[in-house]
Amino acid sequence: MEFLAQKIAIGIGQALFVLLSAPLFTSLMKKVKAHFQCRFGPGLLQGYYDIWKLLKKDAVISEHASWVFKTTPYVVFSATFIAAVIVPSFAVVLPTAGIGDAIIVIYLLGLARFFTAIAGLDTGSSFGGMGSSREMMISSLAEPVTMTGLFVLAAAAGSTDFGGIITKSLVTGHVQPAYLLLFPAFLIIAVAETGRVPVDNPATHLELTMVHEAMILEYTGRHLALIEWAGALKLTLLLTIIANVFFPWGIAESMAWPAVMVGIFAITAKVGLLAIGIAAMESMIAKLRLFRVPELIGGAFVLAMLALIIRTTGIG
Amino acid sequence: MATTMHIRSIKDIVRAIDNKAGEYAGKAGKRPGEALGEALGGALGEVLIDIELSLLPKLALDIVDELHGTLQFIFAVDERSHNNGFSLHHIFGIPSKHCLLHLKSVIPADAPEFPSLALQLPAMNWHERKIADMLGLTPVGHPDPRRLVLHEDWPQGVYPWRDDFDSKQKVPRVKGTYEFHRIEGEGVFEIAVGPVHAGIIEPGHFRFSSVGEKILYLELRLFYKHRGIERFMRGRSLLEGALVAERVSGDETVANSVAYSQAIERIFKVAIPERAQRLRAVFLELERMHCHLADIGGAATDIAFSIGAAKAALLREKVMSLCEMVSGSRFLRGMIAPGGLRRDIDNEVIHRISSFIEIALCDVKELEATTFSRSSVIDRFMKTGVLSTEHALNLGVVGPVARASGIAVDTRTDYPYGFYAMHPLDIITRFDGDVAARVRLKFDEVRQSLGIIEAALGAIKSGAVRTGDFAVSSRGQALGWVEAPRGMTLCWVEIDDEAKIANCRLRTPSFNNWPALPYALHGNIVPDFPLVNKSFNLSYAGNDL
């Protein structure tokens, strides 16, 4: 009984942890970018204030919008949230892991993206359609890279389950040729999937240059809050995968409380450092011309394919 | 002031220009550029010639072909009360002769139309349409006779520049639709942007026809900011006119008020004190600097290069704080007046400006290194938004945009005025015509501006900063010209018997440069539009008075 109660507590803890920590990491990135621009920037709690503010506001909905537009924020939020709950953050073996494996995570994110894209088309504004078309171009390139990368990890671990994959990393260590190739590939994918520089610019007001922002331009109030929150969850989720697969240190291998505490601290620090790194890199470079994005993601695909070849031929 | 000799052909025009050049050369015995600096603000400057309306098409084409003149400005004035018609004015710049050729013809009141030259000289397109909107004079043979300045909700037959228009009345709004040019074909779709934009941007509507991301055609729909400034100028005193000119467009405060003041000074044949000339140049160059730095930062912002944007913003802020320290206004308002300056500045302040030059040179160097050391930035700038020399020439493009497309035009050198007549400049040009060329050119010009400020302050002597008794007067008219940050600004003023403004026409560089923007976008992709637009740096308020 006691074991079950602990299991439930850890499960709920995992859900609450990803949900509540996500806005912190996006705020942290804004803070770091502000630092590079010699500004103070918003406080670390700004992400929470924004979501709270938007949740209280009424949503303005175009009279041309169909049910798709109104449902999308809920679909996007729940799909991303479920995906985020599946990915182990502070403990390797999660009771929530039973929901699905790595492939489910990819397709939950795919579902969210699909709905965002058709919601962008739904209101019939010129920007929404433009954003949807660009997003689909980018994700149709990014998805094969993610899948290939996951196959490499799954082949190494003998399991598509994240618990198995991370256990494998813990056992063998990450300094293997296949993993070294996969790390930059996953970073590029994380940047592309979350709409950050150099693929997209989350801070721009220029509609014509937007990708992700163009699709959600029509959203307001609580709808926007959910979409923004889902965006933060997606970023946290992708960074958590990278952190725990490539740097599995500190993650709780048992359900003992001290290990879990260390695990929570470790994952916060790891994701925080990755967020700082990405924000610093974002500050240093300019956004790519839209048609250069395939070259960048193509590079990631080559890395992932090489990793796959190395893995399956047994070189690494 | 108009030449009385009868004009029949281009030869007569050349003779008239040479005669006037001879007069000036005779007076000062120096090259024309220097002579006028001493006489009255501007080399040979304006040469006003009366011509028959029927000769206009032939003469205009010959001026462009044989004298390599470029059309700068067309305007018209309602003179039915005393001249039985409308006067039509064509201003051509002829850099080889340092002359702004002003052709004046009369349109009879009973036949309110004039021959359109927009087909042969595309630079005339918008100018002729503006005249049609504001005065009801029809450009006969214009290829695109749609409304330009007044939108379709303005009733037909109401012309705000006619004398019989009561500017106090409330004009009823009517229904009407604007016909956009349609591009048809498989996969062509339209993207409508604006006039209300995200962010703090002035209103403008952009209609893209594109296939996928590739831009096939861009149609501009501007003029949402019409405030009736030119009409508002009527009856104002000379000083009030300068205050209004300052407020036409925020970042062209000094340029517009200097252009206006120089027109007044040329009407009254007043030479302003040397100290005022030097300080005016300092203000003009400070304005150019903060304008160019805003552009450089804007280009970095548009490609999400945040470090470059932040550094440019910091440097621009330093310039604007300096402006505030000098004048009490970040845009240098309230300094320029006909006859010189409204007030002098302390030697302490002059010293502060001088000591700023060295700091700024360092900062500019660092900013340029930051911007152009990143391959990601260079990749976005190069080959983006190329404006060919041919298009730039045909459309009468001015300022940095023209210079980045390989056209050596600069009002400060071509038609020297004020301090620039004493201090000859080299025109900086670049030849690629892309965003990279325009951004690099602006870096070079910021450095050049610092040099000019240094030279202007180097030998400055104390003394009066304002002169001129403008009270005694008879009717007169003249043109004032200035190189604003965006290019040549022209201001034409006519004074009535009581030393009040009878008519005023202002043309800022944006009016000439806007029509060139779509040509720079051919073959570019939609997400590159904001960057190209930023590199052109066009004003909405200055464009639409």
Automatic annotation (TrEMBL), chain A:
Q: What is this protein called?
A: Formate hydrogenlyase
May I have one GO cellular component term? plasma membrane
Can you tell me where the transmembrane regions are? 6-25, 74-96, 102-121, 141-158, 178-195, 232-251, 257-281, 293-310
Task: Please state the protein's primary subcellular location.
Answer: membrane
Per the record, membrane topology reads: Multi-pass membrane protein
Entry annotated with the keyword Membrane: yes
**Where is this protein localized, as stated in its record?**
Membrane
Q: From what organism does this protein derive?
A: Candidatus Aquicultor secundus
Q: Return one GO MF term.
A: lyase activity
What keywords were assigned to this record? Lyase, Membrane, Transmembrane, Transmembrane helix
Which Pfam families does this entry report, sorted A to Z?
Answer: NADHdh (PF00146)
